[in-house]
Each structure stands twice: as C-alpha cells, then as structure tokens.
C-alpha cells in the first residue's frame, strides 16, 4: 500500500518528465547505483561496487556500507550499527529513496 500511495504522489506531482517515476526491483537498484555518484541538496554519495559508500556533507567525508536486500536498498553509516532500508524510485537522472517511515530523499546522478 505504501508503494502505491507514494507512486500516486509522484504521479500527481508537477510533471518533470512525461513518464512517472517507477519503483526499481533489486537487480535494477544495483545497476542504478553501482559505481555511480548521487548529488542531494546538501550532500553527495558515491556507491562503490565493493559495497562501500562515501558520503560527503559539509566538506566532510564519512564512509559507510550499502547493499541490496530483496527489492530494497540497504544503508549503514557509522556511528550507527543498524541498517536502514529504502524503496528506490528512478526516472532518467533522478533517484528517490523512500524509507519505511515514508520520508523521501531525492538526488540526481552527478557522474
């Protein structure tokens, strides 16, 4: 139900392209993120094929880990030991990460 409600929200938002964003299955998430750089409003993130990820925020670097869990993106960034999981939606150069709490973060490919 959460994916359906979010998809309705994305489709109803002002059109930035002709087709709506779509949720990605696990293999497509891996292809969309591996060896890519995503820029957010105030940060950027590099997704290494090794499963390491480099967050850069405010000029400071922080290393973490990423993985695919079924059809979700998993992220772990110290000092937290827990993994957070997200649905991933994509369209052209945009990527939208939606957490279990329905908070969403949008980024654009920057590589």
Could you give a quick summary of the protein structure above?
The chain is built from two helices and nine strands. By secondary structure, the chain is an alpha+beta fold.
Walk me through what this model shows.
The protein is α+β, with helices and mostly antiparallel strands and 111 residues long. Helices cover 17% and strands 47% of the residues. It has helices spanning 2-12, 26-33; strands at residues 22-23, 36-39, 43-47, 52-57, 60-69, 72-76, 84-91, 94-99, 104-109. A hairpin with a 2-residue loop joins strand 7 and strand 8 (94-99). The termini are far apart. The model is unreliable at 1-17 (pLDDT under 50).
Task: Give short descriptive properties of this protein.
2 helices; 9 strands; 111 residues; disordered N terminus; 17% helix; alpha+beta; eight-stranded antiparallel beta barrel
Instruction: Report mean pLDDT, rounded to a whole number.
Output: 86
Q: How would you characterize the largest beta sheet?
A: 8 strands, antiparallel, barrel
- How much of the sequence lies in strands comes to over 45%
Radius of gyration: 14 Å
Distance between the termini: 33 Å
The number of distinct helices, counting runs of at least 4 residues, comes to 2
How many DSSP E strands? 9
What is the topology, as strand order, of the major beta sheet? 2-3-4-5-6-7-8-9
What is the H/E string?
Answer: HEHEEEEEEEE
Structural class: alpha+beta
Low-confidence stretches: 1-17
Measured as a percent range, the helix fraction is 10-25%
Shape: globular
